[in-house]
Amino acid sequence: MRKICFPLILILLLCSCKKEDINNDRFIAYIGIADNNYGEVYICNRDGSDSRLISQVGAKNLSDADYSPEFSPDGSKVKFRGFDFMLRVYDLSSNSLINIEKAFASAWSSDSKKIAYVKTTDTERQLYITNADGTGQQQLTSYRYWEADTAIVFNGLAWHPDENVIITRAGVDKINNPGSYLVKIHPQSGKVVSMYPLNFSEKFTLHGNKITWADGDTVFIHDLISKNTTHFVATGESPKNPVFSPDGSRVAYTIDREYQNLENGQYVTRYCTDIVTRNLNGYDKRVLTVLEKIPDNTKAKSSFYPFWLSNSELLYSAGNIYKVTDDVSPSVSIIGNNLQAYGQLQANF
After folding, report:
1. How far apart are CA 112 and CA 159, in angstroms?
2. Which long-range contacts (CB under 8 A, 24 or more apart) does 268-274 make?
3. Cα angle at 78 between 331 and 340, to 5 degrees?
4. Pick from 149, 114, 148: nearest CA to 132
5. Whole-angstrom Cα distance, residue 132 to residue 77?
6. Residue 63, SS3?
7. Of 178, 227, 245, 275, which residue is most buried, by most CB within 10 angstroms?
8. Are 106 and 116 in contact, with CB atoms under 8 Å apart?
């Protein structure tokens, strides 16, 4: 009979448990208004249980909400920006909250160790980088307003995981070539890797080598390799905040819709937000959230990015957190009860 090495078995069991624990650490971060906290950031388990507050901003109403909670790629941290513009990072392992500094757009590095962000002063808008724990803050760029050929105002951000470059929209004030440019910045040196004219929104999202944004009734898709831009027109919808599905085959975006709400015995016209998905050519349109289980009066008009949980499912907050299917006949299930979740949310993997 073969002898069994018990220390080896113990090590294997410990490794197995550790892996299982990591896989179970899956959360949803969302904007909530429970306990009169109004627009603070909460996290809960994927089934909606164990909801807890992770921000301490003291917002007075939902319009003061902390904006866009976003998990780090490794799922261990959440960054968000409050109505006071302070960029904050919450560490899930230590349950600690760190203030970085006042900033606009921000983006995680692919290894989750750093954050790039845009900082604005009275005279400039520059790119900075920081460690995720708030240390090692470094100014990457130093372009000044009104200086010939170097007046660059940085806006939206994304961090390309493969190229390891920071992609940003820059408004350029040049004598000969003013306008909007797509700029790639090296995250260590701050040098411009490449820069070319592209009229796009600072509210763009990155997936692989493509970015997408919306303007008017049009959704644009730009290939970073070929530098070609395609688009489709969503007539009458005024699409906002388009986001690629995980496999890059579809785009989800939000629209504002009128509905009639019964108030004090009379119907009043209000507005709510819905999620629409389409193929990249604009065909196969699906409106996912006009469903009885998601009451119109809970879908307050707000600007947020749809979140793809998988290639066939999205998360949506409208009082409760809902999981909706991207299907011709969409279905919906409720995650948790009475979470009082609104606006932006995201899950880690």
Report:
1. 11
2. 270/296, 270/297, 270/301, 271/301, 272/296, 272/297, 272/298, 272/299, 272/300, 272/301, 272/318, 273/299, 273/300, 273/301, 273/302, 273/304, 273/318, 274/299
3. 45
4. 114
5. 9
6. helix
7. 275
8. yes
SS3 label, residue 268: strand
pLDDT in tens, 143-177: 765 455 455 678 889 999 999 999 999 887 665 56
Residue 105: CB atoms within 10 A of its CB come to 21
Q: Which carries the bigger pLDDT value, residue 151 or residue 219?
A: 219
pLDDT in tens, 92-136: 999 999 999 988 889 999 999 999 999 876 556 789 999 999 999
Rounded CA separation 346/78 (Å): 10
Q: Cα separation of 161 and 197, whole Å?
A: 22
- For the residues of 91-118, what is the DSSP string, one character each? ETTTTEEEEEEE-S-EEE-TTSSEEEEE
Mean pLDDT estimate for the chain = 85
SS3 call for 59: coil
